[in-house]
Write a structure and sequence with these properties.
It is a single chain. The protein is built from seven helices and four strands, in the order αββααααββαα. It has 371 residues and is α+β, with helices and mostly antiparallel strands. It has a single domain, classed as Outer membrane efflux proteins (OEP), CATH 1.20.1600. Strands 1-2-3-4 form a four-stranded antiparallel β-sheet, with no helix packed on it. Strand 1 and strand 2 form a beta hairpin.
Length: 371
Amino acid sequence: QSARARQEAQLQRARGIEAGSGEWAVRLNQQQRRVREPQERFAETTLALERPVRLWGKADMDARLAEQDREVARIGLADALHEASRTLLTQWFGALRARLDANNAERELQLARELDRQAQVRLRQGDVSQLDARLAKAELQRSEATSRLAQAELQRSIAQLQRLYPGLPQPRGPEDDVPTPALPAQPLEAALQDFLTHHHELNLLRAEARRQQQLAERLERDRWPDPTVGFYTARERAGSEQLAGVSVAVPLSGTYRESQARAALAEAHALAQQVQQLERQLTADFEARWQQLAQQAQALVALRAAAATQRLAANKSLTAYTLGEHSMTELIQNRRLANEQQLASQRLLLDSLHNQARIELDTHRLWDLDD
């Protein structure tokens, strides 16, 4: 709503620029005339209607400046919608990470409960030591604390989403068998061109630079002053004389107009430099994200393989513990490593999907916010 209000304010300012600041003025003079010989006194009145006139092509320049203001307003609204979409995307994936952590903590808690149950049974049978049973109990207590913290963070993330975006469904995390995100089929150069073409912040700065350049040209033209033209009628000598005429007033341009024009031109040059700097920064950021997406895909394959290997090792460690070949400490450590590897691969999958979604959003393939 605030973005639309700002757009409406800019549109109204553009309307005012196009109409011009010159307004009709009514001037009324009332005077007394005294004549010594013969001694007489007369009431006299002058009524004038005046208005500045835009010359030297200033009306056309104001119309172009107003149109550029409307373009700035349009891009500004699209930029606000784009930033809101990026915020939604970030918070959505933040909630997905919170759900992922909560699910992993719950899974780890279930394993710890089962391990504690087995340890208590075997302790009563005399198969394990009191130390092993206490280690299993400590692991259960740690898992319970981790699970409570993860659930609290999940509830906070979901509550924030529901508060900011009422009616939005709760995010559901991707399954473990989700394939590795494919790299975009479009070449980097073409994707970069689309990114820079559709980037609202860059386009907004470009539009503001063009507007500032037009404003500098308009202020330079203001060094040629506009005349004020008026029509007047006068009633003199108590109405015995009636006058009608035309008046023209021309201000004399001075240092103020010159300094304003030069200042606007300097600001236009500064904005042009900012456009180039922002374009370089955005290019570097996009290329880094593009390369990161490829590296994340490769790392995800390796992490998934490592998680599968570690999960197999944890299962074998349980068998070895049952046979008395592994201690409780080794079993807990292997299970914890297996859970950490699985969580790391799932987090990397979410990071890769988030990076891919941001690229799709920034190139207007996810949502086209200019429609």
